[in-house]
Amino acid sequence: MAQSIKTITDKDRFEGIFKNYFAKKDVFIKTKSGNLAVQFLGYSGENVAFRIPHVKNIREAITVYTRHQSLTISAVLNYIERNEDTFIFLPSKIQVISQERKEDRIISGAEETTNVIYISNIMSDLGIKNDLMLNDKKVEHVREIMQFDLQKQFDSVKVFFVNDSQTDIRMKILINRNSPIYIADLNTEPPDKLKAEYQFYITDIYSKDKRLSATKEFIAEATVPLYHRGIIPFGYLQVNGKTPITDGLFSVVKRAGVVINELFRKSNLFIPEPDRFLVTDLSASGLGVAFKDRRQTRFFRKDSLVIFEILLPTQKKAAIGAIVRNVNFLSNGIIKVGMEIHRMDPISEVNYEEFIEEMSKKSS
To answer: pTM to 2 decimals?
Structure first.
């Protein structure tokens, strides 16, 4: 997706930009809980005024933004004063970001059409972490079983869950990649196709793991991620060896990871929420939902991972893992959430892509 950014600091141009792009438009400010709808009131001298409802305190510097076709226009504002819900700011700079959408979105959510779509059975990464904490006895039982079995074959065994630590190196890496970590033997020169992976492991994992780098006794590692429904990672299984880990032993670790996932599934540890959310638009790479109950924003923290089911008009289902990209609080009380699709299982991917293709043909 091609993108260009233009920064404007010439104050003589500010008034024209605000009046052309912010007046009578959907404008938002970024907050910790999401993007709050505000109203542009006017520009006078070097100051700009916005109506910001339901806000008691505001930071010294805020960012407001609006969209116009393929442009996103944002302005950095320094707080001066307020009168009830009217706030006065001094703009310091404006950025115009041009970004072409690489695909068309299909509009949903109209009750009188046949394309009303909902998502349900939602679970967030925070919900999974809470379930692990609330069921610590079950979790520890699974951990002990796997460690006992695997310690018969490996020098070091670690079963990690996301509630164990906030700053784990491997967990951060595994969230963003779809493959295990496998280093057969650090003492043997890897083939050319694996050199980049070996170098990444040494630089970004091994050197930052004090236990491994300090002792230097372990020369091999196999780490497999643990996924809820194959989509949201909730931990990993890590083994290290003082001797090489063969492909056969790596297969043992992968099978053990499958066993852990199955134990969690049978114990019903992760219970999805029954809430339904109306889908407003969707595309091959993302979708949006809308709702009014502010309590439901607990499922949608910016940049968090969520998993949900979507029942398509074709009567086929898709289980989708998505990243929450934006949460917008509109002036009419509606809350809109935009999500980027992160991962789907193969059957869900086929069902979803078939629906998108069919709807695209109908709208073209």
So the answer is: 0.73
